[in-house]
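Lab notebook, bench 4. Still working through the backlog of constructs that have no structural model yet. Next entry is a single chain of 131 residues. Request: give me the structure tokens for it.
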Amino acid sequence: MTIPFWCLFAGVLLPYVWFAFAAPWRAAQFGQALNSRAPRLQDSELAGRAARAQGAHYNSLEALAYFAPAVIVAHLTHASASWSARLALLFVACRVAHGLAYLADRQPLRTAFFAVGLLSSLALFVLSACA
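Model written out:
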């Protein structure tokens, strides 16, 4: 498996890492674990670090919508393997840093890491177009 595909695998796991933070904070806030019958109803009532962890979870899921196709297209077009690997690793590093900044309530850093991660995905598409 190539480095970009390993990075895609890491990207798929990241939302669940952030959810692992959200779950105990949600339980502490509500005095119970996740409401498994209607879990999203609780989301609007989350506050503080529980809300931020849930936000990191959702944002990580959303980021897959542009990263996964970028990795696949780069692979299918035989884009530069070394640049594809660098950009995919940059994406994962930014997504980890984004989640940590989200949990720490460091909004300007969160935005910066989001932007660099997005740009790395877009760069994968550009790399594919040039292949």
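Notes after review: The radius of gyration is 16 Å. The longest helix spans residues 48-76. Flag for follow-up if needed.
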